[in-house]
Amino acid sequence: MSKQKLTSRVLDEIFERIIYTVDNSKGEIHRIAEDSRKEFEQLHQELEQLKRKVLETIAEGDRLEINVRAARARLSDVSRHFKIYDEVEVKEAYEKAHNFQTKLMVNRQLEHQLKQRRDEVERRLLTLTETIERAEHLVSQISVILSYLTDDLQQVGEIVEDAIQKEYFGFRIIEAQEEERKRLSREIHDGPAQMLANVMMRSELIERVYRERSPDEAMKEIRDLRKMVRSALYEVRRIIYDLRPMALDDLGLIPTLRKYISTVEDYNDGKPQISFTSLGSDKRMPPKLEVALFRLAQESITNAIKHADANYVTVKIEVCDSQVILIVKDDGKGFEVEEKKEQSFGIMGMKERVEILDGKLEINSAIGKGTKVMIIVPQSQLFQS
């Protein structure tokens, strides 16, 4: 008995050390990603400055070339007619030509150095981008492994009957959660965080513009700054809306879908065009059902935009006495349904949601013929409290 306890304790210690080592590795990779991201931001700013300096140096070089040609012409004229010019004028013409030529040589050397540094920075940025992407991918994979090692999968087992499906589905749920966290992190970093960083830089610039130029130009910078803040606010609201649209609790499914579609069209500059039709009863449904139907519509619309490359999407929802019907149809490139079913976690997730509602999911698609998603949920699920 004591031997069994000892073996169990040793195994537990080994298991804990494995988790500790894996978790430490995740932390190290995360630090590498953060350091690379900081270096990327610094180099990106340097690259913008280098590009400006290159343009300024080229413009200065063009001006110097004009001056050199003029000075050479003057020197040539003085040399040909040296009898009518005194020694001071000849010397002055020579020194002027020499000075302009020297400045031009220095300018060309500076231009070469700036371009060389610019190219080095661009190459380093490409390397850093690859490092950050690989690090994020590794962190995501390690997070999945840690979650899979430490989480209790019994709750997933209550949903999935077969042991193999249970293991696979549990792993994919964890993977999807990590992907969603990574996507949200990237959206915040590339959206509001980047915009706010730019706001800080522009706010520092306003003081300099006011001192060195004019109040009018400073006011123009303030107006531009206001636009940037407005854009950042829009991005924050869009991200919040994607996480959980507050209008769903206040207004219900139909108005929220209409507002969501309008927001999606605005964000994607009207491509694809999305039409929305609502038929039947406008009676409120149970909150959980409204959330489920909204997520199903959201997933279908997102797939049409991201994967189908559609120009036109139609969304139709019909609430009848016996059932609710949701149809999302696009004119995109389509896909082979049977090949995609086992590979797409999005389709698997939609199928699970519909099955929980005792409903039916039909996906009709073919290469080059668009996609039609139809979801039918029975009346018994609709209006029960």
TrEMBL record:
Lineage: superkingdom: Bacteria
Name of the protein in its database record: Signal transduction histidine-protein kinase/phosphatase DegS
Subcellular location(s) per record: Cytoplasm
GO terms for cellular component: cytoplasm; membrane
Organism the protein comes from: Priestia endophytica
Molecular function via GO: ATP binding; phosphoprotein phosphatase activity; phosphorelay sensor kinase activity; protein dimerization activity
EC annotation from Swiss-Prot or TrEMBL: 2.7.13.3, 3.1.3.-
Record has Hydrolase as a keyword: yes
One Pfam family per UniProt: DegS
Reactions it catalyzes: ATP + protein L-histidine = ADP + protein N-phospho-L-histidine
Ranges of residues in domain Histidine kinase: 183-381
Biological role: Member of the two-component regulatory system DegS/DegU, which plays an important role in the transition growth phase.
Native organism taxonomy: Bacteria, Bacillati, Bacillota, Bacilli, Bacillales
Keyword ATP-binding: yes
Coiled coil: 30-67, 111-138
Keywords: ATP-binding, Coiled coil, Cytoplasm, Hydrolase, Kinase, Nucleotide-binding, Protein phosphatase, Transferase, Two-component regulatory system
